[in-house]
User: Which sequence fits this backbone?
């Protein structure tokens, strides 16, 4: 038999993260869920973005609910209370993610498809790996594809353009110096 007293009712404030997540997912009382959310926000976020390359439109799905649910987003590690729950099917199984992460992954998929199409058409040049290595200076915000705005993309494209121009100048210099010393 399950007892009716909860850790919050007993005045226990120092709960582990696992206990708080269990309370968040199992409780029906709004006040207990709110307390669990408040305490879970104190913990450091644990992100799982290693499966982002598996994202496709067919393994991401959103479900709109008529009630408020509380859960921990598997991808960003944030605690969420919302009526939209998203699921991401990876090689590790089906994971629950927040709406923000789902939209970010869908936007990233769309941008990658456009980039590949534009490269195929010759609109956007294929960037050599050496150029991409020069772009390590980008901030953490720019490195997270789920949060890129149009301004960020324009900034990134400008950086790629500058790096590509520098790469081409280096290549021309190497070719010129080789022809000078060989002739």
Assistant:
């Amino acid at each position: 038999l399950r007892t009716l007293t909860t850790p919050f009712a007993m005045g226990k404030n120092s709960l582990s993260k696992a206990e708080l997540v269990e309370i968040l997912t199992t409780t029906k009382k709004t006040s207990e869920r709110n307390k669990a959310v408040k305490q879970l926000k104190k913990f450091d976020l644990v992100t799982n973005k290693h499966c982002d390359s598996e994202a496709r439109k067919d393994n991401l799905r959103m479900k709109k609910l008529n009630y408020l649910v509380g859960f921990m987003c598997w991808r960003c590690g944030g605690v969420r209370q919302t009526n939209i729950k998203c699921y991401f099917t990876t090689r590790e199984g089906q994971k629950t993610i927040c709406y923000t992460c789902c939209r970010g992954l869908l936007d990233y998929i769309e941008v990658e498809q456009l980039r590949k199409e534009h490269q195929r058409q010759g609109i956007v040049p294929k960037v050599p790996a050496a150029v991409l290595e020069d772009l390590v200076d980008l901030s953490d915000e720019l490195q997270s594809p789920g949060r890129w705005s149009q301004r960020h993309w324009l900034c990134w494209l400008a950086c790629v353009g500058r790096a590509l121009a520098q790469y081409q100048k280096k290549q021309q210099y190497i070719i010129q110096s080789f022809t000078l010393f060989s002739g």
